[in-house]
Amino acid sequence: MNHVNAVSLTMVIILFVVVTGVGFAAARWRRAEEMMHLDEWGLGGRGFGTFITWFLLGGDLYTAYTFIAVPALVYGTGAAGFYALSYTIMVFPIVLVFAPRLWSIARVHGYVTPADFVKGRYGSRGLSVAVALTGILATMPYIALQLVGIQAVLIVLGVGGSGSNGFVRDLPLLIAFVVLAAYTYLAGLRAPAMIAFVKDTLVYVMVIVAVLYIPTRLGGWSHIFSTASTHLAATNPKTKKPFGSLIVMPAGYWAYATLALGSALALFMYPHSITGVFAAKRRDVIRRNMALLPLYSLVLGFIALLGYMALATPAVRAGVKAAGGNTQLSVPLLFENMFPSWFAGIGYSAIVIGALVPASIMSIAAANLFTRNIYRDIFAPGASPRTQTRVAQFVSLIVKAGALVFVFALSKQFSINLQLLGGVWILQTFPAIVAGLYTRWFHRWALLIGWAAAMIYGTIQVYRQPLPGVLGSHWGASSAPVFGHVMYIAIAAFVLNVVIAAVLTVVFRLLHLPEGTDETLPHQYSADPEFVARKPAVAATAAGGSPGPPPAS
Amino acid sequence: MVQPQRRALHPRNAVIAGVLLLIGVVGAFWVPIYARSAPKLGDFPFFYWFQLIWMPVVMVLCYLSYLLLRTPRSQRPDDSVPVESGPIEPGEAR
After folding, report:
1. A212 CB near a chain B CB, below 8 Å?
2. This prediction's pTM
C-alpha cells in the first residue's frame, strides 16, 4: 500500500488540474455587473434553473459521506449502515413540503441565510445569532468529513498518511485544500456549481462500471452477500459481539429509523443545502428538483453496496487490517484491486472532487452566515454589500481551517460520526426555521431556550459515547439509549427542544412577554417573484429586497 | 377555478399530495416492513431490493405531488420584487 501507482496518480492529478481550471474560470460564468454582492458571490446570482440546481444540490448532498463514510460503515457493521439509503429516501418528500415556502420568503425579502429569515420572522437577533452559530458549528465536522475522504484516497494512492513526517504526510491534502480555498474565494458559488458537472459525470461513470463489473470479478451478488454475511457474523475482538448483520435486527430498528429520520430532517437545515435552495431561479425549480434528486439516492444505494463488495475481497480486508482497521480505505482499496490503474484513477478523482465541491459550498454557506448574522448584525450594521462580500470571502478561508481541527481532533474510525455530530447540532434549528414558515405561535425566547437546552443535552450525550470497545474514550458514537431504546441523539434532543419551546411559549404568553415584530406577510410565503439583479448604484439596501431596474435575465 | 392571474390550488390537491408524500416517508421509516431477507429478488435479500425499489416509487410520488401543487407563474418579469401573489396555497398556509 505504500507504493505509489504512477498511472492512477497521474489520472488524479490531471483531473484535479482540469477541475481547478473550471473553478477559476467559473468566476467569469454568468457574470453580473456588480459581483461584489452576496447575492452574486454567495448565491451565484440567484438564477439557477432546474438543471444547474439539480447538479448543485446533488453536489451538495452526495459527498465524501456517500463515497467513503457510508460504505465504510456498511463494511464495518453491515445493514445498520444502510440507514443512509432510508434517509435519502425520506428527505425529499419532507423537503418538498416546506422548501418552496422558505425559497419564496427569502426571495421576497432578499434573505441570504436561514438566520436572516429567523431574524425577520421573529424580530429576534438572539435567535438569529443562535441559528447562525449552530450552522457554522455544524458545518465544520461536515467539511472535516470531506477532508477525511480525500485523505483516504491519498493514503491508498501512497502519497499521504503513511510517511513519518507529519507535515510531508499531510502536504497533498493541504495543497488540495489551498487550491479549493483559492477558487472558492475568487468565484464563490459559481465554482462548485460548475465543477459539479464534472464531478457527477465521473461519479455516474464510476458507479455504473463498479456495480456492473465488480460483481463479475467476485463471483456474483450471491457470493458477495454470503461472504459479507460470514464476515459480519464473526466476533469483534473489541466488543465481544458480532460486527454486524446482513439484515437489521429488531434491537436496531429504533436506531435505524431515527438515524434516517434525524438525518433527513437535518439535511435541509444545513446552511449549504439552504444556499442551494436560495440560489434557484424559481419556486417550481425546488419542487421539480425534489422529484429528480432521488436519482442520486439510488446511486447512494449502490455505492453503499460497494462496502459489501470490499468485504468480499480478501485483498481489501488485508489492506484495511494493515492500515490499523481504517475502514475508510475500503472503497479506494476496492478500486485499487478491481480496476486497471487508469480507471481506478478516475474512481479516486470522483471521490476527491466529490469531496471538494461540497466543502466549497459549505464554506461559502458558513461564511454567508457569519457575515450576515454575526458580523453585520452585531458588529457593523452599516456594512456595504461590498464589505460584506469581502468579509464572507475571508471567512470562507477561516471555516476551512476550523474544519482541519475536527480532522485532527476526532477519531476517524467511523468518519460518519462527523456528519452525525453535525446533524445533532443543526437539527436544533429546525423548530425555529420550519415552524416559523407556518406559524408565529412559538415565542421567540421559548425557541431560544429550547434550542439552548437541546444543544447542551445533545453535545453532552455525544461526548459521553465511548468508541466501541475503548473505555473512557469520547465522541465515539451518535446513538445512545434513551428510555430503553438505542436512538439517534439528534432526535432525542429535538423532542426535548420542541417540548421546552411549546411549554415555555404557553408560559411566556401568559406573562405577556414581548413578541417581537414580524416583517413577513402571509402571501409572501407562496410568492414567486423574479429576481432583480442589483446594480451598483442601488446595491446599498441590505435585507430589504430593493427593487431595481428591470432584470437582465 | 381558472382565474385570470393564477390558478388557485384546490385544497383537495394539497391533501392528496400530503398523503402521497406521507406514504413515501412511512415506507422508509417503518423498518419492520422491510427488515427481512425473504423474498429475495435475484440474489438480493428483501431488505436491499425493497429500499432500492422504494426510491423510484418515492420519485414518482414526489413528481405527482409536484404536479398537484404546481402554481403556474403569472407575473411578468417587469413587476417589482415584492409582488402581490394570488391566494395562499391551502394546506401550506397557517
Report:
1. no
2. 0.85
A-chain residues near B82 (CB < 8 A): 108, 524, 527, 529, 545, 547
Handedness of CA B24, B28, B29, B34 (dihedral sign): positive
Select the residue of A247, A250, A530 nearest B45 (Cβ to Cβ). Answer: A247
3-state percent breakdown (helix, strand, coil) of chain A, nearest 5: 75, 5, 25
A273-305 residues labelled b (16+ CB within 10 A) or e (exposed): bbbbbbbbbbbbbbbbbbbbbbebbbbbbebbb
ipTM of the complex: 0.82
B contacts of A304 (beta carbons < 8 Å):
none
Answer yes or no: are the C-beta atoms of A194 and A26 closer than 8 Å.
yes
- Which of 72-131 (A) contact B at CB < 8 A? 79, 82, 85-90, 92-94, 96-97, 100-101, 107-108, 110
Using alpha carbons, select from A390, A335, A383 the residue that is nearest to residue A41. A390
| 10-residue mean pLDDT series, chain A (553 residues) | 76 88 79 72 79 81 84 89 91 91 91 91 90 90 85 83 56 80 82 84 89 89 88 77 82 90 92 87 86 86 91 88 84 91 90 86 87 85 83 83 72 71 92 92 93 94 79 76 86 94 93 86 82 49 40 40
Q: Which long-range contacts (CB under 8 A, 24 or more apart) does A106-109 make?
A: A106/A278, A107/A46, A107/A278, A107/A283, A107/A527, A107/A528, A107/A529, A107/A531, A107/A545, A107/B81, A108/A520, A108/A524, A108/A527, A108/A529, A108/A545, A108/B81, A108/B82, A108/B83, A109/A519, A109/A520, A109/A524, A109/A543, A109/A544, A109/A545
Q: How far is Cα A371 from Cα A41, in angstroms, rounded to an integer?
A: 12
Q: Which residues from B are below 8 Å from A488, CB to CB? A: none
Burial tier of A312 (Cβ tally within 10 Å: 0-12, 13-18, 19+)? buried
Collapsed DSSP state (helix, strand, coil) of residue A31: coil
Phi-psi label, residue B10: left if phi above 0, alpha if psi -120 to 50, beta otherwise: beta
**Nearest residue in A to B50, CA atom:** A86
Distance CA B35, CA A79 (A): 9
Intra-chain end-to-end CA distance of chain B, in Å: 22
Mutation to test the A interface, candidates B34, B51, B75, most A Cβ within 10 Å: B51
The closest CB to that of B43, out of A100, A220, A547, belongs to A220
Whole-angstrom distance, CA of residue B18 vs CA of residue A265: 17
Grid cell 487490517 — which residue? A321
